[in-house]
Amino acid sequence: MELIKNTARWILFLPLAFMASWLVTRIYLSIWSLDTGRNVVISALFLHGVSGFILGAVGTLVAPNRRKIAVFGCIGLSCLVAVTYFARYSDFWGGASALVQIAACAWGAITVQEQEWLESPASGAPRNAMANHNVSGPLGSKTNPVRCEDPSGEKEYLSNLRDNQAQSPEFTRAGSVGTGPYGNLLDCYRVRTSDGTEREVYFDMYHRGHLELKPIEGFRIANFGRGRYRVAPPKDPSNLKQLQKFGAELSAACAVDAPTLREYLGNAFSVDQCHSILVFALSLIYTSYGDDRAKVSDALVRNRELALERQQAEIVYDYIMG
Predict the structure, then answer these.
(1) Is the dihedral of CA 317, 214, 122, 149 positive or negative?
(2) What's the pLDDT score for residue 156?
(3) Inter-axis angle of helices 240-264 and 271-284, nearest 10
(4) Which residue, among 227, 223, 230, has the nearest Cα to 250 in the 3D structure?
(5) pLDDT tens for residues 251-261?
(6) How far apart are CA 253 and CA 259, in angstroms?
(7) How far is Cα 93 from Cα 100, in angstroms, rounded to an integer?
(8) Residue ranges of the domains in the chain?
(9) Is residue 301 exposed (0-12), middle (13-18) or buried (19+ Cβ within 10 Å)?
């Protein structure tokens, strides 16, 4: 049933967006015709701005998932409408009105997309209460699939898993395997750990904005920069304000994963010490050495405050980079 609803929404999202924009235009013109004292140019620009915003916002709101595709679809439709209008009024103000409509459409579509992203559950909580679905069994099973948005969300989740050797697993998509407990089509991935153990993991990719922050059974997970904690490296490392913002974001992100790193290090360090280790290591990766394993490990060992041995520094690198 959910699949049918989603299909219907994909079919209707552009027609409904156009109808909403057209309806707003008709209402505005009927009111405007009663007031001949309005400035024609200002009214035309305002009307195209409002109708474009409505087109983008309604279209993106109606689309069930993959909002980026919906955004581009709405902008494409707005371009078609704008070109048609300019072909009829091919003067400066006709062109200006057409550009205003396209810009307003993009603004409306992106505003809805970002708003839904901000309101989406960043802590891993489901958008719909689990009690409303027949969910059972361990996370990643057919009866309790990992929820995410789009195929990119599936791959991101798997890439953040870590096995007992702090390594990222290898994975390949096996295909679609029927309907899951949420009424959506499931994807199956074959996952292989560094010691050769294989298993199947099931995903429901139709949960817009959802981020699963818990690992499947037998794995740990690195959630750096995911959920509420988004880490953006400073564009200008010499800019103090950018560095302070980066440090705050990095500190928040590392607080989530410090307990997991402590497990990998055999509980030889406190959670606070592991937090400091992660902040220092990630700052090196983001701003200095990139993914250069030798340079990052050497810097970790040289920092006497961290008190890391070579093997422990290698474990830290493996946990971060997989």
Answers:
(1) positive
(2) 87
(3) 130
(4) 230
(5) 877 877 888 88
(6) 12
(7) 10
(8) 2-119, 130-221, 240-321
(9) middle
Pair of tokens at residue 291:
């993914």
Q: CA nearest 81: which of 51, 107, 61, 60? A: 51
- The residue-averaged pLDDT of 144-170 equals 89
What is the dihedral sign for C-alpha 226, 229, 230, 232? negative
Query: Is the Cβ–Cβ distance between 219 and 162 less than 8 Å?
Result: yes
Average pLDDT of the segment spanning 230-241:
72
C-alpha 81/C-alpha 253 separation (Å) is 44
Between 147 and 293, where is the model more confident? 147
Query: Does the structure show a pLDDT above 80 at 199?
Result: yes
67: its two tokens: 């909002």
Is the distance from CB of 181 to CB of 170 less than 8 angstroms?
A: no
Give the Cα separation of 152 and 205 in Å (integer).
Answer: 9
